[in-house]
Amino acid sequence: MRKLFLLSKRLLKYKWIESSHFHYRKQLIRQISHNSTDSSIVYSELPDCHLPNVSLTQYLFEKTDEFGHKVALECGITGRKYCYNQIRQLSVRFGSALIRMGLKKGDVLGVVLPNCPEWAFVFLGSTYVGVTVTPANPAYTAVEVFRQFKAAEIKAVLCHSQIASMLKPKLNNMSTVNIFITAFGHIDGWVSLEDLLSADIYSEEAQVDLDNDPLILPYSSGTTGLPKGVILSHGNVVNNLCQYHVPGTTRIQAACNDYQEKYVSILPYFHIYGLVVTLLSGLWYGAHITILPRFDPDLFLRTLASVKPTVLQLVPPLISFLANSSNLDRKMFQRLHTVMSGAAPLGPSIANKLLERINSSSLFLQEGYGLTETSPISHVSPLKGSQIGSCGKPISRTAVKILDLETGASLPADLEGELCIKGPQVMKGYYKNKEATANMIDEEGWLHTGDIAKYDSGKRFYIVDRLKELIKVKGLQVAPSELEDLLRSHPQVMDVAVIGVPDERTGEAPRAYVVLKPGSNVSEKSLSNFVAERAAPYKHLHGGVVFLGTIPKSATGKILRRELKSAI
User: What sign results for the dihedral spanned by CA atoms 219, 371, 415, 537?
Assistant: First the structure.
């Protein structure tokens, strides 16, 4: 029955992806309102935001021009700074240089660059002239970068000089690439980013189709398979920023007179969370953004101590680091009013431990949810009535429903099923992959996230687990995140990941991979008993306990369960 249901959905989805249907979808998502009476769908309780018909640079430059000589971007290592009155100028210079070198609207620029202030000028400058950016993780191997850039059909590449040396042999095999730009170092035959930013040239802003022209092409695995290019249009990203900036969504305030939010920016800009929620939204608010290129424990703590941020956008591993750090000084957080957590579920035990360590009645731990495919935000904790462990409620102009995993029927409160989202932030589709798009977005514009979730009577949502990561024990579902949060509450456990391993008797059995705190000597049997005393029998760790030095995770903190499974 489930297979027939999915097949019928898939056949219908193929019709939706044809370009002639995009106008219908545009009208559909703009009609989403919190005033609907459809009881099977949860609508945002926030006011409907205005969705402007402007490009990203038009949306941002109008705001950044207002903040004048206030510091916008600062390197947390070198201290070099750029003010808001330089944002437009340096961005336009870079974009104009791309046009002068032969790029045109619709071409794709591959970027491999650690976090730095100049990231903003590269991205906004490309956007200004209609060039699409596909960002890659600087930690990727040459093979991984090459695979993404080949799939994205890049025409130009920009990367750090140290990375350029590694990539040169691979890039030489890409006949479509004839523009090579390097940052922070000299490479023979490559153009210097610093030279492009200092060139006094100017081009007109490109006229873009807000709903169809790609703004950025990040790569995501979606619910299954290898990474795919996610087409996010100008409209997707601008709309999502507008949704996030609706009054009542966040405590963050726009710069005014002597007040300015202070950010310590550590989330990578190649990831949509760091790019949109920290960098782009931060610029719109006029924040002073101190940027770190990577996570280094000592550097991170020193920067927190010197900046004393008002806002932190983090992922659960960073929150866990702060909650467990022996070098934490509460003075670092004397101005902190908001910690945003996203990219992966935040266990209540970690959340509560951080709140206890900081011990500030004014601190708001705001959890959120989203995907690369939703530009990225779909949910945030409400300013009033939030619940630890909940990823919050739908943001403005966003509709959500929970579907039964077997029948596809919409479910009421407190029942678990697949989380589906509709809104103006939902991607256009996957780059040159209609089948993957059709498997992700149905004919009515609902994005099927592949996440198992539920909502309570207060319409707060809770992520239970990934659909593909559920462990099946004798047909019963075990959510790895539930056991992980339980084990993290053990006083000697630093970190943990749970996967299902093959079992002849039960089909699968839960196995825990555990990182102990320094000096701990707890045994496998002790941890197994700890779980057995607190969980139903089918959730017991019959697959065993394995001790590791670190848990493999992505740059945004998601557990790389496939790496653990590949070692079985």
Answer: positive
DSSP secondary structure of 119-178: HHHHHHHHHHTTPEEEE--TTS-HHHHHHHHHHHT-SEEEEEHHHHHHHHHHHTT-TT--
The predicted-structure confidence for 368-413, as pLDDT tens digits, reads as follows: 999 999 999 999 999 999 999 999 999 999 999 999 988 999 999 9
Strand partners, 402: 419
Which runs of consecutive H residues, i.e. helices, occur in 172-312?
193-198, 234-244, 272, 281-285, 297-307
**pTM flag (> 0.85):** no
Rg (CA), the chain: 23
Could you write out the DSSP letters of every residue in 320-369?
HHHHH-TT--GGGGTT--EEEE-SSPPPHHHHHHHHHHH--TT-EEEEEE
Residue ranges of domains in the chain: 56-366, 470-566
Q: Which helix (H) or strand (E) holds 11?
A: helix 2-16
Residue 461 and residue 11: Cα distance in Å, rounded? 30
Please give the CATH superfamily to which domain 470-566 belongs: ANL, C-terminal domain (3.30.300.30)
Indicate whether 241 pLDDT > 50.
yes
Least reliable range by pLDDT among 66-70, 263-267, 499-503: 499-503
Query: Which CATH number is 56-366's, of 3.40.50.970, 1.10.443.10, 3.40.50.12780, 3.40.140.10?
Result: 3.40.50.12780
